[in-house]
Design brief:
This is O-methyltransferase. The protein has about 210 residues and is an alpha/beta fold. The protein has 8 helices and 7 strands, in the order H-H-H-E-H-E-H-E-H-E-H-E-H-E-E. Helix 2 packs antiparallel against helix 5 and helix 3 packs parallel to helix 4.
Amino acid sequence: MTSEAANWAYAEDYLAEDRVVLAARDTADELGCVPVLPAAGRALQVLARALGARNVVEIGTGAGVSSVYLLRGMDAHGVLTTIDREAEHHKAARRTLTAAGFPPERARMITGRALEVLPRLTDGGYDMVLIDARKVEYPMYLEHALRLLRVGGMVVIDNALWHGRVADPAQRDEETTAVRMTLKAVRENESLTPVLLTAGDGLLVALKDADGA
């Protein structure tokens, strides 16, 4: 193992996950959805806490792994709006959140295609948007996220390194290209202050500094 790989593995294992999250990961495997990795999940919790986030949008619910991390970081009265096209995912996520001790009113689960749901959400009404769904739709998710965020809000993009493919110019498949385009759009947007983290499978974090994004 290279030193870089060893450092990454150490960072992922630095904080142990509890039984609720581990059970949700098992459920995600059964459902065929891929949750955020441990370090990325904890980063979401810390970022939500730092923002004092009360209203968060999550694009891609899965079995509720990232939902738990977000709610653990959010304001005690905050509400997570989480979108997934699969009703079975929401059923699993609801069980996960119940096991984690969150009452039903803390999560608004909307089943449907994200690009059909997002236009119905309130402009400037959210503190954070997490993008973690269909990679080919990432550029369009970003457009909606910037509209939904308040000034001072944060967009977070999971799988920003996409299994090492984004950094390899020889990789030009549709998903990798879409993620790469999204990173470029964030970097070139003057209303955003971004940072690309290597936590998990890559986490792109950007603060919205001004309207007109």
